[in-house]
Amino acid sequence: MRIVGKSICGATLALLAGTAAAQSSVTLYGVADVFLQYMDNGGQHAYSERSGGNTGSMFGLKGSEELGNGLKAIFDVETGFNVNNGTLFANTSSIFYRQAWVGLTNDRYGTLTFGRVYQPTFWIVYPTDPFRGNEILSPLSAGVLAVDRNTLATQYVTGRTSNAILYKSPNISGFQAYAMYGFAATVTQPVPQTSGNTLDLAASYSGYGLYAGIAYQYQHPGTETLPGLPAALNLLGTEHYTGAIGYRFGIVNLTFNYAYNKPHDASSRSLAALLGADHSNSLMELGATIQATAADAIEIAGVERNVRGAHDNTVGVEVGVDHNLSKRTALYMRAGYMKNNGSATMTWPGVTANGANATQVLVALGMTHRF
Hints:
Layout (H helix, E strand, L loop, with lengths): L1 H22 E18 L2 E8 L6 E11 L2 E10 L18 E8 L3 E9 L1 H6 L13 H6 L15 E9 L6 E8 L2 E3 L5 E3 L2 E10 L2 E10 L2 E3 L8 E3 L2 E12 L2 E12 L7 H5 L5 E11 L4 E12 L4 E13 L4 E13 L17 E12 L1
Antiparallel strand pairs: 1-2, 1-3, 1-21, 3-4, 4-5, 5-6, 6-7, 7-8, 8-11, 9-10, 10-13, 11-12, 12-15, 13-14, 15-16, 16-17, 17-18, 18-19, 19-20, 20-21
Keywords: Cell outer membrane, Ion transport, Membrane, Porin, Signal, Transmembrane, Transmembrane beta strand, Transport
Subcellular location: Cell outer membrane
Membrane topology: Multi-pass membrane protein
């Protein structure tokens, strides 16, 4: 009887496992991207091999399980890496730097996720950047991540938030809403930083060739430890106002986005006030994507970053061409120019501007493979 009982139990478990497997799925996906770069940085010329110029090199696991009545459990964990040397991207202390979350979704009620997520503000701007918010060669990302003394204490939209709860509504006749709340988090790379709680609200519409979106984000105060400063810098509570619009006609998609980042006033004796690092700033981008052929796309973007009250600004332009060899493999080219004025030091991520009032010229040739 004991042997028969074990056999029946084993058969039952096998049947249940088979049923679960039929109702759930897990997918391994990723991108391998590498490019050769030439840069003239304020008169200094350099050649290098880098990773992620078109799409960030990464791999991830995502999956879902049917729970019944239209409800699904979902998850996604995703890390970034550098193809040229095999290292982790941006933060070597984080396994899943890009995103890591689990949640529930329903076609009727929307999606609720918990973990490290992309912010609503990111999803509003993403469709209007011809270079898709790329963290290496997008001039828009260069403007977001720009570091200069006048805005050191003004927080920027990071694109992702840890310890977050995110709600995404279902798409109703083209309208979609987002709401996110993130709890405080501490990181050690690229510099030691503690961020305060974050609120992010957004809404978008897409239909009849038109796309429009607005977003509001508030980051509570935090701290950041930077080389050369006598103490940790107090990061100010910062409000971010973002708008984006695009219109497609024929093979051309015209886009525009604008962001205004306003910090709260620094207390008179704080390090932020002593350094004068509490200025507001704005960033705008005008762009176009042209689908020249079924396999070829041309991207054009012009950006301006302006620091209010400091007379620092940067203008830039970039042109790109993507040629698809197949559905998964593409070759690409990027050529860009930036000019800093005043004490602005904006440049492409991963590169340090060579002095004030410097210009940068960049040319890149690369390959992307998706799997």
